[in-house]
């Protein structure tokens, strides 16, 4: 029988926090109440990688992260603490930015098609005369040669018998028998199994599949049995030898056949607990035939965020955005769907042209204007990808919409339609891989940074055109999860979230006081501005949401946000003059604008903490397997990566938890203050209750409140425990509080495990139940 977690705690394993460090906190995770430890990727990665998603060698655990012995020591410590182990794996791609560290890639560069690893990489040999194109040059090859920047070393090495060539930090092997050409550099280069290209050629002329638009991450073909076996031998060993209990699969949508891959993985691991990092669009369901226990929880994140947002206030933030655009001489913001069509089309026609061009080359016959028609279809694709024959309706919808938008391409679109629907054709197989990549880059990494009215809404897995959920809609979503995917993960913060849960919770307050935010933003923009009003709103929201934040952190976030938005500056061609304005905003936040920021944060911080505690309780008590991202058991005000991968002070958290438990033993409760002890109370008590009494969380019934303030409460009966949370705290305060509003309860007394207070049977006044915290966790006495 598959072992499944009741909850997880995510740890980022890297050189600065190794598996031995993780072993040292395993006891703390158990004390906190976590059921399993959840580890970031462990296989050998590019030297210096802090994230581990750039695997270079599948055969062993990264030595800088602790190696095999470190994993064994961690597993022993975790077992002693009673923890299961979930490990993140990366089947879609490998790191190739440091070729010598990736033995497969190095061998292919040296031997070309003669390498036994040549089939492992997804290379289109129709382009480049069979040579692998490497976009590493800072200028055209002729200029590089003229500058003498390529150095040839003919001395033999174990992995390069014929020598190497170097271009600054890039070191590449020479093909057998070509070392004698060292005196004739053009001839030497021509004789290699790779072709050196100008770095911008990656946009349109690359011939290997990348992870999104990252040339340092090359796709591999795990659909081939030998490639799957060799890339998963070590991973499977972790399961069979008891070093891990489950796996989290990164980016399955990049694979040719995600369902087939999950079948292979389940067969190899004995159907171990498996989650997929899959983003679902509104109304989209996880494929029911996949051998998985669920997703990594972005769908739950969106539901929890939305039920705590005031829909009416978002409409006023739309008006503010319109004013900012007018003041900045910008066109009106497109509706969300239209905006994403625009940004996805831009991505398909620029940084992901290579992938679209490969689709054109894979057509069984020529189609006039095929690349434009394909880009238009991809731009309007409503979900990340289809899994033909399932999902054909999404493709048909995208095709019809593309033809309506571009009647000049209707003929080409008509020719392409039967080809894209024919699952026997290569173009049909590859199209879903490209549509997913374009969605990720065009929506998450572009449109999210242009749609700036409220940062809470532009989070991974969310659709910002859906500003809020009613309480009833929230309950419907939880019932659906319990019925269909009860072991799916739920989350609020991850290594990929654009803003941490507590930043979003604080920013949600803006939707309850949009007029006040408009006043404050006007003051702040008078202090420092980029000249781009919507970007100013994004940057100053970041300062407010993550406050206190250093100038350096805010600057780095601001530059990333501005480049991702790709309106006034970009990653490939930064506009230094415009970016001075971004830096000026960051400096002003801790300078001339500091008083304004601190004053406004002081106005909203209590309401933001109410939202934070409510969101955390809802996540931890709701159906699914709740994950706590490292450090977020206290207030965490992180922004997008790498900011959210900063070191965590576990010693502090251990001390705080033990002090919290000691205080509770004598009836002392932590205040809701800067320390974050109140959040630690909610996290630890809810996780412990789920771990010790899972039978209390086996059903879902919506709680019912009666009274004038009933719209401000969310209650869920999980089968013996009832979670109660406050929503829209500003509105609640303005209306005079809870008044006589009551939560209707059965004729059973209960204990609030957060306060230790005994609650009499029957209805309870919310003014009394929530007089200490904005949340309660009631366990029925039976």
From the structure above, extract its key features.
782 residues, eight-stranded parallel beta sheet, six-stranded antiparallel beta sheet
Structure overview:
By secondary structure, the chain is an alpha/beta fold. The protein is built from 26 helices and 27 strands. An eight-stranded parallel β-sheet has the order 16-15-14-5-2-1-18-17. β24 and β25 form a beta hairpin. α10 (336-349) packs antiparallel against α12 (370-379), α10 packs across α15 (426-444) and α19 runs antiparallel to α20. It is globular and about 90 Å long. The model has no long low-confidence stretch (mean pLDDT 97).
Please state the oligomeric state of the protein chains shown. single chain
Query: What is the helix content?
Result: 40-55%
Helix/strand-derived class? alpha/beta
Unreliable sequence segments: none
| Rg from alpha-carbon coordinates | 27 Å
What is the average of the pLDDT values? 97
Largest sheet: 8 strands, parallel
Distance between the termini: 31 Å
CA-based shape: globular
Order of neighbouring strands in the sheet with most strands: 16-15-14-5-2-1-18-17
Q: Please, how many helices? A: 26
User: How much beta, percentage-wise?
Assistant: 5-15%
Q: What's the number of extended β-strand segments?
A: 27
